């Protein structure tokens, strides 16, 4: 019976949680077991470690799970000292459970447990009137034990249910007791990347299985009097270790400096007092005051009042500053991704802060996440603990090493039997048989495989494509689907105003190409005021579309100076954020902007609330996607030709936005008015058309990819007809191919979910045999939720995904990967960060040399970097195959030579081994990796499997030729008149030099050279061998030497 008086024991194993509860453990499919230290087992293992000379400790180091199951016994998770976790890939992790004393009843301060649950928690962990907080750290994240759930959960779960209303309640600040408690639970606000000492790194490096094998080999060679070879390998290994330690520590120190952020910030306490504290002490719920001069954000925070101009290039690669506005008060759950416009992210720079009317010059924000739970922390964590690529080539390479190990065992058995037959000493039998293992299993194989990747990374860097994840280069060679963002990726960043058209129930007016020619009225005021453009040092900053829109009206933007209340008296006492002033020739007055509800990809709209001079009139303006704005306007104000007109403009490739307005009662409190109240019952004003030209390189690159049998997909937030038009203009859809629109609707109170396929309008889309599907975000969501059985079929034929929000872009990439596609994604890094990171190969078009938004960053501001990367990836993959086969054949060649010479009671000399291994083979492998990629993309992709019939077949044929060549050389030598047999009474080293050894040395030397030429495959993914000048020179030099 436990302390609660119930019969059951807490579970000792955490079952795999549902995929919909990712906060419950590090991996939503991770299995967790609890263990408790058993003292007698611990001491027994210590004794066995001493008796085995430390060998058991080495085994425990390589397999931590073995250390746990031998020293511990299973126990309930609630009582565990250590946890053994196994992820979905079968990889096991060991973490220690830590404890910290807390005051009794502290959990009530979070307000997330009722009284009964709080009492149960205290009873379970009460020791000497103290409550123990049990937690562990994994990948930088903190997980705490919650008794009511019966498992460890991410500490962030304690605030994941916060609503916008809850966040606003923190504007008064926390009291000291709450701060202390939260600091104990959440830990310090620090993204701390440990920089290990050289001694610690040395032990970790030396205990690597590769270096242990090297150490074993060196000891073996020394015992066999191979002094030159052993010393050379030892020196090379020491140099390799030294370089590796230096690079690892340098990278750790660089990441440590980049990740660690400690600044002084001003917070408000519950007493109303303002206090400057270190950012390390910040906890979720703290109210941070952001000064007018800005701040480097040390945490994630939701903006409660005021406005902030933020540079988010560190996270997104997007150089245009973003205007953040206050989080609206409401009962909806807060989410940092969907509420990005109200969220200040850790690591971003607040360039300028503006306080609200009642709060002075400082903007207010409440801390929502700290440490590794912030956006920056998540990105640093992804660098420190990268996602396994699960690339077939890497898996097969490991399997092939085991295969070579089996060959080594057979060779060892043959050697033992042979030396027993020759009555060799026990030492000779052991040394010679183990020497076979060091020959067959090449320790240089992992290094040889990475050579091609290093060369490819260097070539990419010279072409302004930067990589922070080199293993992804090989994966890019297998990409079969490439997704592209539209605006700024396929099309130009800037948009030009094509024209505006006013509308009413009676219909649309004529198109006005220059908005400044519009008569004063709601339409002109909407174009001038409905934006989030702001001033920085007198220069307008904001979305390029909005900058063009405001510029086209001829109105000018002014912002309040000093204490921020410059214009308040002029506009009826309202706190004015900005003033739009018309040209002097217009017979209209200035308009003050008092509230901004910024654009949201999920909502597809933005709005502002404005007042006229004197505060006599309050008008709200709405701008967004045409369909969304029309749905928020009164039906009687929307023109009957709305759908037809929108369709016609969209088919011409124009980006179409709609505008609306409504008059608001002057008595309404504008400082607290809700977005939902503003953006309803609007009056339709008209349409704004903007021309977004396709980049000149886009069509060429798309055609190049299609010829290479790479499928191309467009993912955009724009209108579906506009997206289809751009897809046709850039070559994704040919003029003679059909476009079929997928329309799915969710379940509603009035209707059942439905799925329909409809053809495009006659005249625009021709009726060819080939067809493409096009779908928008709403239909995609309904398809995923209600028709999952059709999802794979739709994904396999869809070319255009329109009106997709950032989360849907990420979901799409993941769904494509589930279909076994190797997916590439190219975007600007702003609204597609999630998709870039979710893809196998993500390329961010950014000015930065390295962006944590994606594995690859290109300074080339068009998609011409995509075929460049694919060509390099294919070249790297083909070269890795060649090097793998060469190193494997090199081992087999030497293996055959040694076994033949063993049979004849001799062996290769020390310097002969040294020449082959360190001079001949190493130099050939280095120059083999230097060959560059082909100039063109071929229609076929290189293979990624080492266990395919062509690879294994070629290895078998080459091995047979090697054996026949060496056996033939020996037989030919024995048949010569001048042949002098070996003195069988002397051991092998006393027979040097001898004819057998010399003949096999020469023949195997030629075999090394010929095999290097044979496996250096060029066409079609790599330039021919004769284009690699260094290789040709080295091959000719060695060929001439052996002749």
Biggest sheet: strands, sense, closure?
Answer: 10 strands, mixed
* Apparent shape: globular
Question: By helix and strand content, what is the structural category?
Answer: alpha+beta
- Number of helices, counting only DSSP H or I runs of 4 residues or more: 32
Uncertain segments of ≥5 residues (pLDDT<50)?
Answer: 1-25, 111-129, 761-768
* Average predicted local confidence, pLDDT: 83
**In whole angstroms, how far apart are the ends?**
86 Å
User: Percent range for helical residues?
Assistant: 25-40%
Main β-sheet, spatial strand arrangement: 21-41-40-39-22-34-38-37-35-36
Radius of gyration: 35 Å
What's the total number of strands? 41
Relative strand content: 15-25%
Question: What would your notes on this structure say?
Answer:
The structure is a single chain. The protein is an alpha+beta fold. The N and C termini lie far apart (86 Å). A hairpin with a 5-residue loop joins strand 4 and strand 5. It has 32 helices and 41 strands. Helix 8 runs antiparallel to helix 13 (426-440), helix 9 (227-259) packs parallel to helix 29 and helix 30 (949-974) runs antiparallel to helix 31 (995-1015). Helix content is 40%, strand content 21%. The strands form seven sheets. The chain has a ten-stranded mixed β-sheet with strand order 21-41-40-39-22-34-38-37-35-36, with helices on both faces. A nine-stranded antiparallel β-sheet has the order 24-23-33-32-31-30-29-28-27. A six-stranded antiparallel β-sheet has the order 12-11-13-20-15-18, with no helix packed on it.
